[in-house]
Amino acid sequence: MASRCVDEAYGVMAGFNFWVLESSLIPFELTLFNQLLHFWFDNYSAAIPLAVQMVAYFCINVFAVKLYGETEFWLAIGKVILAVGLMLFTFFTMVGANPLKDVYGFRHWKNPGPLNEFYSTGSLGRFQGFLSCVILANFLIAGPEYVSMVAGETINPRKTLPRAYKQVAIRLTLFFVGGALCVGIVVSSKDPLLLDALDNGKPGAGSSPYVIAMHNLKIIVLPHIVNALLLTSAFSAGNSYTYCSSRTLYGLAMTGKAPKFFSYCNKNGVPIYSVLMSLAWALLAFLQLGEKSSTVLDWIVNLVSASQLTNFFLLTVTYNFFRRACIAQGIDRNDRSKFVFRGWFQPYMSIIAGAIVFCFMWIQGYTVFLKGKWSVETFLFNYFIIFLDIAIFIAWKVIKRTKFIRPEDADITTGLAEVAEHERIYYHNLESQPEEKRGFWGKISKVLFGD
């Protein structure tokens, strides 16, 4: 859509940035998986689990691609069980259901309080603490836009995707906001074990606020269960990013925005060279052989955050160009027969969001400029991708001599006829099938897990 509504060079930049975003998350999950293993074992080389995981991802994405959806379904259940279980753990223990019978409630919200000093003292330190949380939240909340990637493989995208977007909003509110509140409840930001884990890069779930809370409450077995579920979550995420990254590169190659050989598929329809290229990013995880795994995680988090912020900004710009094209071509955005999903308060929300995200693109790595904090590696992982994106845009524009697309010339209709014909056949076949009815628990399951 960026190439069709804005500029071909802009579309190349957006596609490349999104591929980097997804690809860089592969070594992150590999490094995290190894760090979680250290919760139980220390006497092994980090290269062993890294190599095993890379081979596993390759096999799943190349030889067992038909099992990919089934694998991810069951692994996703583990993620939901973990998230819901930790929330229940928070509720029951805060009201006294713990070995110490300690009704700690919201004690940590009062002492030391919700806002604490970070890097500096006083009001500036509290603001920097809040800013650090916002920057980290950007990394953690990445992913809602991935729903649109399955549009081409969805049976009824016009009906399924709008519902999926709404469910994503519910899940983000429930799991991310609820999880953040729970973390602030179960452990103090001044807890000695937490500070020691952060200062020394303590591996595994040992640096998790939940595990520290379990240790403080003398709960023995539960930390091992949490770590096991975290392992499955990390493996699942890395597998998903391998799939999404390879398909993004394949899409770029199919449209002439990446070398043609990346579009080659084997007899199973798998873009084999795209999978290999995406998995090559996993080699970044081997950096932890020379550095602490926590340091490597920080580097990759910085890279992902910069790419994610750039991606969000590019999305808002693309949307506004798309909206402008609709107006210029006389297409009513309120026509439900054409647009089954509309965002709230547009275009104002996208403009405000774009401005905020653009500012955070440059703010997110500000700590490297603080006194005594300079690091070449940190600077590169924070800002290199932004300048590389700009260079790609300029280079493609100069070499291909592309021009910004006028709104009346934007292509916003290609593919609609195929979707309409697909829907006609789908609803014709649906008429002969009995309507599925869901009970209460079926509706709850749909919100948590989807259809």
Structure description:
- The protein is mostly helical and 451 residues long.
- The model has no long low-confidence stretch (mean pLDDT 80).
- It has helices at 2-5, 8-37, 47-62, 68-94, 107-110, 122-140, 157-186, 192-200, 209-216, 222-254, 272-280, 293-328, 348-363, 376-400, 416-430, 440-449.
- It has one domain: Up-down Bundle (Amino acid/polyamine transporter I).
- α2 runs antiparallel to α14 (376-400), α6 packs across α12 and α12 (293-328) runs antiparallel to α13 (348-363).
- The longest helix has 36 residues, at 293-328.
What keyword list fits this structure?
membrane; AA-permease/SLC12A_dom; 16 helices; mainly alpha; 65% helix; 451 residues; Amino acid/polyamine transporter I
List the helices and strands and how they pair.
Blueprint: H1 2-5, H2 8-37, H3 47-62, H4 68-94, H5 107-110, H6 122-140, H7 157-186, H8 192-200, H9 209-216, H10 222-254, H11 272-280, H12 293-328, H13 348-363, H14 376-400, H15 416-430, H16 440-449
Task: Summarize the structure in short.
This protein is mainly α and 451 residues long. The chain contains 16 helices and no strands. It has helices at residues 2-5, 8-37, 47-62, 68-94, 107-110, 122-140, 157-186, 192-200, 209-216, 222-254, 272-280, 293-328, 348-363, 376-400, 416-430, 440-449.
